[in-house]
Amino acid sequence: MANKHSLSVILITKNEADRVELCLQSIVDIADEIIVLDSGSTDETVAICQRYTNNVTVTDWPGFGKQKQRALDKASCDWVLSIDADEALDEQMQQALVSLLAQDTITPTAYRLPWGVTLYGKTLKYGRSARSVLRLFKREGARYTLDEVHETVIPSAGTTKELSGLLLHYTHRDYGHGLDKAAQYAWLGSKKYHRKGKKSHGLGLALIRAIWTFILIYIIRGGFLDGSVGFIVAMTYAQVSFNKYVGLWLLEHDRS
User: Fold this and answer.
1) For the Glycosyltransferase 2-like domain, which residue ranges apply (predicted)?
2) pTM here?
C-alpha cells in the first residue's frame, strides 16, 4: 500500500539501550524519516539508533518541551509521530497508521493514540492508563509547549480523532526505576508550577490533593479493575501529587 502522505517520527533519548530497539522496530517500516535527539547517552543508545536512521544528533538537555520542539523543527514530512523510547506501536496501530497515510485526503489535523501502559507484566486498561495521548499530527502549524515536563503538542487548527490499536508504554524497568522516575517528575512539576506562579496553598492541601488523586484513579476511573498493579499505580500517582505540591511549597518559602 503506497503512502499518499509522508511521515516523520521524532524521538528523544538518553540511556535507553535496553528499550529503544523495540520502539524503532515498530516504526521503521512506516516512517519516511526518523529523527533522534540524544542528550548524552553513556550506553549503546546512539549506536542502536544509528542502525535505523542516519539522522541522530547528540545535544544538551534543555527540558522535555524544548527538546521535542528541537526534534519537530528538524522534521520535513507531512505528518509527525512523536514517540518515546519506552513506547512501541502494536500491530493493530501499525496497520491503522499505514492505512491512514495511504488515504487520498486526511481531514483531521491530529490523532490521539490509546495508551497501553504495560507495567510489572500487565497491560493496564483502567485508571489513569485508560487514556489517549496526542502524538500524531500534521507538521505544518504544530508546536510544543516549552514546559520542563508534561509538555503537550499544540496542533494546527482542525479536528482530532483517535487511531485504533495501542501505543504500548513500558513505563518502568522495575520498581526502583519507577520510584526514581516518579521523584524526578514530581520535582520537575514543582519547578514548572513555581515558574508559572502557581501557589501550593499549604501542606494540608497537598495531602488533600494526594488523597483525591488516589480516589480519582483507583475508584472513579476504575483502577481497582487492574488488580494489585492498579493499586500500586494509584498510590504512585498520589505520592507524585503530594511531592509535587510539597516541592512547590518549599520553593515558595525558599527552603528547597
Assistant:
1) 8-157
2) 0.84
